[in-house]
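OP here, attaching both records as promised.
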Amino acid sequence: VQLQASGGGLVQPGGSLRLSCATSGFTLDYYAIGWFRQAPGKEREPVSCIGAGDGTTNYADSVKGRFSISRDNAKSTVYLQMNSLKPEDTAVYYCNAVLDRIDYWGQGTQVTVSS
């Protein structure tokens, strides 16, 4: 099982980024995938998740209306579209899957929102 996050970078406030989580080793459409983030000196926090099957989505209050999660099962990839970015969105972003009660994490991708 592998998850590989990518797409981070430096963006100005108000800008957009799209993160990708490429997965392998399991059938993506059978599992929920979550995005988490960790800012310097802070604990890792959940950002968004997308369920298996009907793809029910959930968002942290801090990103509702600005971020959108989606999945492409054919490409085994989950996306996090981030719009109207704010400096407080600066963090390392990780994708996560839980298979058979084991947590799997991608390596993280840095998002920096700064002018």
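Record two, same layout:
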Amino acid sequence: VQLVESGGGLVQAGGSLRLSCAASGRTFILSISTMEWYRQAPGKQRELVASITRAGSTNYADSVKGRFTISRDNAKNTVTLQMNSLKPEDTAVYYCACASSGYWGQGTRVTVSS
């Protein structure tokens, strides 16, 4: 299984970005698994940002609730993270993952300027 993220970049505080994760390979495994977005800021540990189950139930870190939305399209093997009202503290490398199965993307960098 390969996970490839896209959509990162530089944005001003208050702006929006949409991250996408495209899966290829044995995607059946992903279609029945919870998918996650993690992030790792410079000098900090990797943290879970959002997750979505096979059935579409979602969970968010307190720091992004109300601003970020995770979604998935099992038919297209994609997971998306819509990020609104971005803050400088959202600056990090964002990773798409199916952590329970040990699959991780290479990450996409998000930089939010103040």
